[in-house]
Amino acid sequence: MKKTLIVYFSATGNTFIEAHDLSGKTLNVFATSGGSGVEGSASDLKKAYPQYKWGESRLMND
User: Fold this and answer.
1) 14, 31, 36, 53: most buried by Cβ count inside 10 Å?
2) CA-CA distance, 27 to 12, in Å (whole number)?
3) Can you tell me the distance from the alpha carbon of 7 to that of 30, in angstroms, rounded to the nearest whole number?
4) Residue range 24-34, pLDDT digits in tens
């Protein structure tokens, strides 16, 4: 059985991702606000952190 961990990082960088080693994990981007969608954020994260394995991206308020 796979274990799932949900980690929240803010878009402002106050909580963000560079302080953690997420090697060996599959990262799935999700957003709860429909204001700007999730595609742009997911694309930016993938470009900024190409060393990580990226899964699907999803807007959760559909």
Assistant:
1) 31
2) 19
3) 11
4) 999 988 887 66
